[in-house]
C-alpha cells in the first residue's frame, strides 16, 4: 500500500516498541505523522505543495457535496470527513518549509484553510487549528521571514482574527481535545501578533479582547486561563488603543475581580502564580491611560491593593507596582484615597525593610522593590497637600526620625553605586575616539541599571522633607541638620 495511511502503518511497525497504528492515541499518531513528514520534507518543492493543496481541496469539495446531499444522514458523509481530516494532517509537512509559503498563498491555500476553520465538524476544525498553529510558529516564521510574512499578510487580509474568535466561541473545554484546540488557537494569536504587532488592534475590533476577559472571569485555574492572561498582557503591551478601550469593555473591573480572589491567599502552583503576575502586569499597562486610572479608583482598586499589602500571606511586590502606576502623573485622587484607606501603615514597613530572598519579593529584585516603594512616596509628596501631606510627614518624624535614617541609608547606597558606574563610564570614554548618540544612550541605560532613577526619587523625597519641615514647623532630626549643613 503506497498510500499515506499505508506509509504510516509501516512506519508504526518499524521498531519493536512501536504499537500498531490502529492502537495508537491521537497524540502518538500526530507524532508519527510529524516523523514521517520530516522524512519526506526534503523532497518537497513547489509542485508538491500545489498537489497537496489540490488534494485537500478535492477532499473538502467532496465532503461539502456529500454533506449537502445527505444532510439528515451523517453516516453517508462521515467517511469523507475522516479522509478530509487525514489530508489536513498531511499538510503539517508545510510547516517545515516556510520558504514555500508563497506557493501555499498563491494556490488558494489560505481561503481553503479558513474554510476548514469554519467546518461544522469540530474534529476538522481542530485539525485546521493544529495546522495553522504549526505554520505560524515563531521559530518557523523567523526561519524564512519574508516568505512567512506573505502567509501572515494573506491571513490578515481574510480577517483571520474574526475567524479565530468564532472558533473560540464554538469550542467546549469540557472536551479535552477541544480544550487543547482552544490552547492552540490562543497560540495562533500569539504567533500572529509576534509577527505583526499591529494585529493586536484587530483583537479588539473582532471581539477577541472581550472573549479573553470573559474567559478570565471563569472561577478556578487551568492552563487555558493562564494562556488567556498571557494573551491579555500581549494585546495591551502591543497597542495603546487596546489599553484605552479596555475600560469601555469593563476590563479593569474584570481584572480587579480576578485578583480579588487572591487577597487572602497565594496562588497554589507556579503556573497559577504566573497567571496572577500576568494580571498585575496587565493592570499596570492599563493604568498608563488617565481614563483607566479613574475607573481603577471608582472600582476600589486602591482599597484592594492596600488590603493585599496588609495580608502576610501575600507577596506585596506586584501590589506596590500597581500602586506606583496608579499614583503617578499628578493622580491626586488616587493618592488621597491611598491615605484614606490607611495605606501608609502598609507602605512604610516595605520601605523600612526589603525582604532578603527574591521569592519573598515576588520575583522582584531588591532594587526593583526599592524603586516602587520610593516612587510611591515621591508621588504622595508631589500630589498631597494640607493635612494629608502632614500625615505623610509625621511618618518621617515618628520614632525619632527613624525613617529619615533609612532614607539617608538608601541615598548613600545608591549614590555610591552611581559614582562607581560614572567612574567606569569615564574610563570607557577615554578609550573611545568618538562617542555617538547610541553610545550615550548605552551609558545612560548603564546608569539606570545602577539605580539612577531610584537615586533621583530619593533626592526628591529628601528635598521635599526639607521643604515641608519648615512648612509644618517640624522638629529637625540630627540627620536633617546634617543634610542642611
Could you explain how this protein is built, in words?
The chain contains 27 helices and no strands. It has helices at 4-12, 26-41, 46-69, 78-90, 101-106, 109-117, 122-135, 138-143, 145-157, 160-170, 176-195, 200-205, 208-216, 223-238, 240-246, 251-260, 270-286, 290-298, 301-310, 317-327, 332-340, 344-352, 366-383, 386-430, 437-449, 452-471, 478-484. With 485 residues, the chain is an all-alpha fold.
- Biggest sheet overview: none
The H/E string reads: HHHHHHHHHHHHHHHHHHHHHHHHHHH
Helix content: over 70%
Backbone shape: elongated
Distance between the termini: 95 Å
Could you say which structural class the secondary elements and strand pairing correspond to?
Answer: mainly alpha
**How large is the radius of gyration?**
29 Å
Mean pLDDT level: 86
* Discrete helix count: 27
Name the features.
0% strand; 74% helix; 485 residues; 27 helices; mainly alpha
Summed up, what is this model?
By secondary structure, the chain is mostly helical. It has 27 helices and no strands.
Amino acid at each position: 500500500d503506497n498510500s499515506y495511511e499505508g506509509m504510516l502503518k509501516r512506519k508504526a511497525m518499524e521498531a519493536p516498541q512501536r504499537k500498531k497504528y490502529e492502537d495508537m492515541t491521537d497524540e502518538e499518531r500526530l507524532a508519527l505523522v510529524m516523523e514521517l513528514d520530516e522524512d519526506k520534507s526534503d523532497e518537497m518543492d513547489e509542485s508538491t505543495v500545489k498537489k497537496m493543496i489540490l488534494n485537500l481541496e478535492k477532499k473538502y469539495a467532496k465532503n461539502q457535496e456529500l454533506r449537502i446531499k445527505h444532510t439528515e444522514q451523517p453516516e453517508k458523509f462521515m467517511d469523507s470527513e475522516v479522509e478530509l481530516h487525514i489530508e489536513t494532517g498531511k499538510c503539517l509537512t508545510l510547516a517545515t518549509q516556510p520558504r514555500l509559503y508563497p506557493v501555499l498563498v498563491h494556490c488558494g491555500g489560505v481561503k481553503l484553510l479558513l474554510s476548514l476553520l469554519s467546518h461544522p465538524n469540530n474534529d476538522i476544525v481542530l485539525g485546521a487549528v493544529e495546522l495553522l498553529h504549526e505554520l505560524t510558529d515563531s521559530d518557523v516564521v523567523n526561519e524564512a521571514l519574508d516568505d512567512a510574512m506573505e502567509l501572515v499578510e494573506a491571513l490578515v487580509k481574510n480577517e483571520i482574527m474574526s475567524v479565530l474568535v468564532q472558533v473560540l466561541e464554538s469550542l467546549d473545554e469540557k472536551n479535552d481535545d477541544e480544550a487543547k484546540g482552544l490552547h492552540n488557537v490562543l497560540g495562533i494569536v500569539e504567533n500572529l501578533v509576534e509577527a505583526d504587532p499591529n494585529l493586536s488592534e484587530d483583537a479588539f475590533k473582532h471581539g477577541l479582547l472581550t472573549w479573553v476577559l470573559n474567559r478570565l472571569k471563569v472561577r478556578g485555574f487551568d492552563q487555558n486561563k493562564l494562556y488567556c492572561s498571557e494573551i491579555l498582557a500581549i494585546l495591551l503591551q502591543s497597542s495603546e488603543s487596546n489599553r484605552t478601550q479596555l475600560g469601555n469593555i469593563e476590563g479593569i473591573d474584570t481584572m480587579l475581580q480576578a485578583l480579588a480572589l487572591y487577597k487572602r491567599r497565594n496562588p497554589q502552583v507556579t503556573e497559577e502564580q504566573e497567571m496572577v503576575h500576568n494580571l498585575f502586569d496587565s493592570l499596570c499597562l492599563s493604568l498608563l491611560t488617565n481614563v483607566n486610572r479613574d475607573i481603577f479608583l471608582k472600582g476600589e482598586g486602591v482599597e484592594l491593593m492596600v488590603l493585599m499589602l496588609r495580608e502576610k500571606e501575600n507577596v506585596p511586590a506586584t501590589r506596590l507596582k500597581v500602586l506606583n502606576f496608579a499614583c503617578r502623573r499628578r493622580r491626586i485622587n488616587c493618592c488621597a484615597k491611598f491615605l484614606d484607606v490607611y495605606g501608609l501603615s502598609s507602605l512604610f514597613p516595605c520601605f523600612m525593610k526589603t525582604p532578603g530572598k527574591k521569592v519573598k519579593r515576588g520575583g522582584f529584585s531588591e532594587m526593583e522593590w526599592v524603586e516602587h516603594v520610593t516612587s510611591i512616596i515621591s508621588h504622595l509628596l508631589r500630589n498631597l497637600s494640607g493635612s494629608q501631606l502632614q500625615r505623610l510627614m509625621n511618618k518621617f518624624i515618628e520614632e525619632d526620625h527613624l525613617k529619615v535614617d533609612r532614607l539617608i541609608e538608601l541615598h548613600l547606597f545608591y549614590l555610591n553605586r552611581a559614582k562607581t558606574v560614572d567612574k567606569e563610564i569615564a574610563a570607557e570614554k577615554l578609550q573611545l575616539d568618538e562617542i555617538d548618540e547610541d553610545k550615550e544612550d548605552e551609558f545612560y541605560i548603564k546608569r539606570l541599571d545602577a539605580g539612577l532613577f531610584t537615586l533621583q526619587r530619593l533626592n526628591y523625597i529628601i528635598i521635599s522633607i526639607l521643604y515641608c519641615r519648615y512648612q509644618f514647623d517640624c522638629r529637625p532630626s540630627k540627620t536633617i541638620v546634617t543634610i542642611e549643613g
